[in-house]
Structure formats: structure tokens, C-alpha cells
Amino acid sequence: MAISELSFQSDPVTDPMDASDLDGFLQELPEWQIQGLSIASLIRDFKCDNFVGAMALAEKISELAERFNHHPELTVTWGNLRVSWWTHTASGIASNDVYMAYQCDLLVQE
Predict the structure, then answer these.
(1) 76: which strand partners?
(2) Which end of the chain is more exposed for a tag (fewer CB within 10 A), N or C?
(3) 70 with 102: CB under 8 angstroms?
């Protein structure tokens, strides 16, 4: 399945994504990495021109998060926005996190 065929699951997701499925989707999300010691998360650093640019991108992603009621951890520093997606109820990365990472990538392409 291609990442563009994923859909957001509005019901609570309780199972993390299968590792082989996740690896396949990561081929389509080359800027994203898996990190985390106890709970895995999907992380990307977005480079921005300055602090204001990083805040503006954080605002766009916050609007996306509100629309889907699925919220990442956002860390803003000068010229950088780190976005981290994971699903608490799945204790790791679920299909919704991959979907939201893809949506973030689409946002920066606009």
C-alpha cells in the first residue's frame, strides 16, 4: 500500500504499526526517523529561515493537528522545528502517525 492510500482512523488506535509496514512507509518519508528508547516516535527536523519561520510552520502543523485531533510534540528553536508523532494508546508509532507525517510533508510542499 502506498502512503497516499492511508486514511486517518478516528477511533482510538491501540496497536502500534507492524515494523515491516512501517519500514515500507518510511521509504516514502525519507526525512523522517524513528527515535525513542521506551516508546518509539516518528521524528523530523524541518529547517526554517529563522525563528519566525519555525513558529509559522509550527502554527500550520498545530492547525492540522486540531483538525484531526491528533497532536504531535513540537520543539521550536532558531531555524528549526522538530515534529514528533506517536500514539499514546498504541505506546508507539501507529498508522495515524505515519498519516500525519505525510500530511506535514504535504504542508511544506505548498
Answers:
(1) 81
(2) C
(3) no
Q: Mention every residue, 6+ apart, whose C-beta is less than 8 A from residue 94.
A: 9, 13, 15, 16, 17, 86, 87
Q: Are 97 and 85 in contact (CB under 8 A)?
A: yes
Could you report the per-residue pLDDT of 58-107, keeping only the tens digit for each? 999 999 999 999 999 999 999 999 999 999 999 999 999 999 999 999 99
Mean pLDDT computed over every residue of the chain: 94
pTM for this predicted structure = 0.93
Question: Contact 105/30 with Cβ under 8 angstroms?
Answer: no
Residue with cell 500514539: 87
Residue 9 pairs in a beta bridge with: none
DSSP assignments along 50-61, one per residue = SHHHHHHHHHHH
What share of the chain in percent tops pLDDT 90?
78
96, 97, 98, 102: CA torsion to nearest 10? 100
H-helix or E-strand containing 27? none
Q: How many residues does the chain have?
A: 110
